[in-house]
Amino acid sequence: MRGSTAGLADTLASGSRAHTALLEFADELFASIVVGPAVVTYWKSTWSLMDLYVLTEDQVSSAASCALFGLCCSLLFSVFQTQLSKHLNPDKGRLTYYVLSRLYTCVAGVACVGAWRGVWNLLNECTGDSARTLMSTTAAATLSLAALRTLRNVIAAPFAIAVDSPRDYFDVPTMFRTSSRETALYILDCVFSVTVVGSLVVFVWRGSWALLDIFLFPDDPSKSCWTSLIMGYSLVVITFSLQVPMRWAAAKLQGAGRLLLVDVYHLVSFLATVNVWRGVWGLLDIYFYPQSPKLSNWSSHVVSLALLILLNCSNSILVRGVYIDAEEPAGDCVIFPCHYLRLFFHKERSKKRHKLAMVAAADRKLEEANVPLQTPEEKV
């Protein structure tokens, strides 16, 4: 009897592991095929619309105005995140919360793209686009992020999905995790997180992207973009496949060795990300109504944003907050935040457990009152 019970437990555990592995694979596929391209499409269309409408006669003024608007909005959203969470929640009315929270995402999304476009284009104007300058600025920014233990912030979709959960919808982690009660220090923390760390991330992305433009079939844009896309998704598959051994290795290592391993793994995932983004971005430019940029970009903007809102992961378009390298315990520090289906099934299981617990509590009360329990047939 004991042996059969142990065998049943092993079978159930094996089934649970298989179910978890299947959900993990589905999440990775969903992030790579659906959310990732939708996020890139939103960014590409919003960036291009700014190119079409924001002070087109003066590139420097256009970049500066976008940077000012984007950074100021991002700073305000960071400083007032506690107030937003307090006053905008489902308890105040589900419809009101839903409308205002998605409006927040729309404004914050434009602010993020504006900040990146402004800093990116100002860098182009100030430092030029020679390969040597790009390599030096990219290397310096990468090392600075590594020294600050913030290198993981260069990662984006498909390795990062933000599910629109009411509990942490407006949360913006800051570099030093200062409490909002310490007003002066908290504001300085927000300023450092948004301007310094945020700008360093833009430096790394801009340099890597521009170097690919220079060295990857510069005379054939179509071939260059297709190559980026293939390389990017190949690295995505490899990176996701390495999750299990990387978790094991990170759990075994300590200190500097663990941090170095995590940073290298994040750099590989970043190379995959920037290639996927460049490939999707460039192919949209080449094949999606290239003769009608306004139609192309407005339709892309509306469809991608609406799709992400309907999928309940619209916050994936936002670049906000600072996350620390190897901050999580053991091997959790190399797990990518792309939980979508797993969260859904976890919620469903939690609801079932809650219902079962309520039924069990009711049965216990009946037993204590010496009331005969009904059979399932009698309950029906």
Describe the structure.
With 380 residues, the protein is mainly α. The protein folds into 2 domains: 29-216 and 291-329, no CATH class; 340-380. The protein is built from 12 helices and no strands. It has helices at 2-53, 59-79, 81-87, 94-127, 131-147, 183-215, 221-241, 243-252, 255-287, 293-310, 341-368, 376-379. Helix 1 crosses helix 9 (255-287), helix 5 packs antiparallel against helix 6 (183-215) and helix 8 runs antiparallel to helix 9 (255-287). The chain is globular.
The N- to C-terminal Cα distance equals 33 Å
Beta-strand percentage range: under 5%
Q: Roughly what is the average pLDDT, rounded to an integer? A: 89
Helices, by number, come to 12
Oligomer: single chain
Main sheet overview: none
> How many individual domains?
2
Give helix and strand order, one letter per element, not per position.
HHHHHHHHHHHH
**Coarse shape:** globular
Number of strands: 0
What class would the helix/strand composition place it in? mainly alpha
Our Rg estimate from Cα atoms comes to 24 Å
Give the helix level as a range of percent: over 70%
Low-confidence parts: 1-13, 376-380
How are the SSEs placed, and which strands pair?
Elements: H1 2-53, H2 59-79, H3 81-87, H4 94-127, H5 131-147, H6 183-215, H7 221-241, H8 243-252, H9 255-287, H10 293-310, H11 341-368, H12 376-379
Write a compact overview of the structure shown.
It contains twelve helices and no strands. With 380 residues, the protein is an all-alpha fold. The protein is globular and about 85 Å long.
